[in-house]
Amino acid sequence: MTAAPPRVLTVAGSDSGGGAGIQADLKTMLALGVHGMSVITAVTAQNSLGVQGAWELPVEAVRAQYRSVVDDIGVQAVKTGMLASAELVEAVAGLIAGTDAPAVVDPVGVSKHGDALLAASALDAVRTELLPAATVATPNLDEAARLTGVRVLSEEQLPEAAAAVLAYGPKWVLIKGGHLDGDAVDLLTDGTEEHWLRAPRHDNRHTHGTGCTLASAIAARLAKGRTVPEAVADAKEYVTGAIAAGFALGGGIGPVDHGW
Ligand code: PLP
């Protein structure tokens, strides 16, 4: 018998195409040496062309999955992704707030293809209930703008967006500037320390699942006892490699790769 690896729980949506969501999360966790577990919040019919359909699970089913995992197996870190509705956001925020483990909150809003993964009516619950329960929140620029009204057009504005997200109460925020021109620059801050993370841009359009992969990699590192800045730096390196290795699949945008 070998010792159990650290356990990490993803609370997110299923991507039938295997590129993002729960599937990306579990692949990342396997690649990074932790035991991945899942609470499925919604099921999407999805492929490289977009999301063809989405169905959220009842709150009761989400709660029951969470309790089954946490009460018996236990978790060293939790990651949240697609939460679909205000009811699910509220329920999940309550669950993670009551769990003694770091929580990485990826405030997923819209897919790269423009499909809504979070109802507009859920934004208030994200601001007032989910973000305050986060150890690290990982919005991209669109998500930060939707949550705070601060629209970032250049690297110099990243601190302003970060401060606006931090005002809702997460301990740390990682603002992902990957959609700006030039290098992929992210800012991690807790309001005191600032860590700028920079990676060369890979000219690869097969980036489906990038956000899920990054947040899961942070959770995996936190579960292994790294500090938040260490976990985020490691995760950025992992996702940069995964983007470089992303491959074409189907007729649209292919996934990042976990086997590089
Ligand atoms: N589908 C699900 C279930 C997701 O959770 C996410 C992102 O979090 C996406 C799709 C979107 O992935 P991308 O924007 O990388 O295409």
From TrEMBL:
Protein's UniProt keywords contain Membrane: no
Entry's transmembrane regions: none
Heme found in the keyword field: no
Coiled coil (residue ranges): none
Top-rank lineage group of the source organism: Bacteria
Pfam families named among the record's database cross-references: Phos_pyr_kin
Enzyme class per UniProt: transferase
Gene3D superfamilies: 3.40.1190.20
Pathway(s) this gene product operates in, as recorded in its UniProt entry: Cofactor biosynthesis; thiamine diphosphate biosynthesis; 4-amino-2-methyl-5-diphosphomethylpyrimidine from 5-amino-1-(5-phospho-D-ribosyl)imidazole: step 3/3
Annotated Pyridoxamine kinase/Phosphomethylpyrimidine kinase domain residues: 15-257
Catalyzed reactions per annotation: 4-amino-5-hydroxymethyl-2-methylpyrimidine + ATP = 4-amino-2-methyl-5-(phosphooxymethyl)pyrimidine + ADP + H(+); 4-amino-2-methyl-5-(phosphooxymethyl)pyrimidine + ATP = 4-amino-2-methyl-5-(diphosphooxymethyl)pyrimidine + ADP
Record-level Gene Ontology MF annotations: hydroxymethylpyrimidine kinase activity; phosphomethylpyrimidine kinase activity
UniProt keyword annotations, A-Z: Kinase, Thiamine biosynthesis, Transferase
EC code(s) of this entry: 2.7.1.49, 2.7.4.7
PANTHER family assigned: HYDROXYMETHYLPYRIMIDINE_PHOSPHOMETHYLPYRIMIDINE KINASE THI20-RELATED, PHOSPHOMETHYLPYRIMIDINE KINASE
NCBIfam families the UniProt entry points to: HMP-P_kinase
Role description: Catalyzes the phosphorylation of hydroxymethylpyrimidine phosphate (HMP-P) to HMP-PP, and of HMP to HMP-P.
Protein name according to UniProt: Bifunctional hydroxymethylpyrimidine kinase/phosphomethylpyrimidine kinase
Gene designation: thiD
